[in-house]
Amino acid sequence: MTGNNTKKITVLGSTGSIGTQTMETVAFLGSFQVQAITGNRNVAEMERQIRQFKPKLAVMSDGEAGKELSLKTADTETKVAWGERALLEAAELDADILVSSIVGNAGLVPTMAAIKAGGRRIALANKETLVCAGHLFTKAILENHCELIPVDSEHSAIFQCLMSRGESEIRRILLTASGGPFRTKPISELYSVRKEDALKHPNWDMGAKITIDSATMMNKGLEVIEAMHLFSVPVEKIKVVVHPQSIVHSGVEFADNAIIAQMGTPDMRIPIQLALTYPKRLPSLAKPAELTEISQLTFEEPDLEKFGCLALALEIAGRTDSAPVVMNGANEEAVRLFLSDKIGFMDIPQIVRETVEKLGSLPADTIEEILERDRQSRRMVRELSL
Ligand code: NAD
Ligand code: MG
Question: Residue 202's pLDDT is what?
Answer without folding.
Answer: 83
